[in-house]
Amino acid sequence: MKEITNNIFYVGVNDRNKTLFEGLWPLPNGVSYNAYLIVDEKVCLIDTVEVDFFMPFLENIREVIGDRPIDYVVVNHMEPDHSGSLALLRQFYPNIEIIGNKKTFDMMAGFYRLTTGLCEVKNGDTLSLGAHSLQFVLTPMVHWPETMMTLCKSLECGVESVEFATAHSNADDAAVANSTLSTLHSTLLFSGDAFGCFGALNGAFIDEQMNCDTFWLEMTRYYSNIVGKYGTPVQMALKKLAGVKVDYICSTHGPVWHEHVEKVIGIYDRLSKYEAEPGLVICYGTMYGNTERAAEVIARAAAQAGLKNIVMYNVSKTHHSYIIRDLFRYRGLIVGAPTYNTGLYHEMNVLLDELSQKDIKGRLFGWFGSFSWASKAVSEITRWNNDKLHYEQVGEPVEIKQALNDDTIAQCEALGRAMAEALMKN
Fold this sequence. Notes:
The chain is α/β, with parallel strands linked by helices. Helices cover 36% and strands 25% of the residues. Strands 1-2-7-8-9-10-11 form a seven-stranded mixed β-sheet.
């Protein structure tokens, strides 16, 4: 039995075979699809799992409740890795009532043709299961339009809880939150994809029972690539939850957070406000090593100027999800690439396009480029920043013809120093 607390059980599964999440993001350590079961006068399932894992999922459920029927399933998020088992679940539990919001059911009809046995809820609605009561909090665009969270209050729980608070919260925000959720003093938050991370669960499922070191950077990579565009909706969700006492955060990916609840909330608050450390990401494309050597000169100059947090990536070797992750961690970005086919080197073009879709704010930006006979890289990166990225320029762009010489080495050094000084000053 995988009991979390007070007849609330973990019934999720692990996927160690998938190599790319959503066909895009590498999964070196796999991923978990988390679902939860509340056993009371009524039995309530919170979310399901990807359909390929339905039979192990069903076994996990039956290990807890045997042949007892499930009364409700709450759908916090309609993405198929969490809702994919709904149609099969209805076949095994034909009387199960599906709980969601209006946008949930619009999608459900399209994905699975499920249109009956539905119970629509609105923000703040409640449902009693007996000793447990649920309250539903709509959190649209974290990170789909139908997303919501479910707060669970257990009458038996006497464990000390952590209060939701964000650094920006003020009295007015708290008053709004408390008037909206005035009756909530819940100990469990079923948060959908929020507060999740990449990585399968290796035996234990609650954070205090495992070494969480591998999950922290994977939480940042998950947030920056999956949720990162939606910082404002995340902040709105945090405001809705301000003042609510939470003992467990039960996400749909990664560990159940208990010991580290405050840390996890703080990470999401910081990332969704695009706050970053004074560090530098240098990423470059290179064909024959000349652009790479320029990147090394820039990095060395920044380090000699006193900047300690510097990471470097070859955009053709490192998956862009790791570069995006570190741009959410660090405030400075310098990119460089050669001219290719009278345009910008392909992988750098792809990376800049990805960054333009993330809407990351408050970053400092420098750039450089190289060419053999027709210069284009520097002007193309300039265009990307002017038209799409809108980052604050630091230093002067460096343009290298064929290979570094004394003048361009000095220019690269000046760019590295300027970025280091700007980052440390701020």
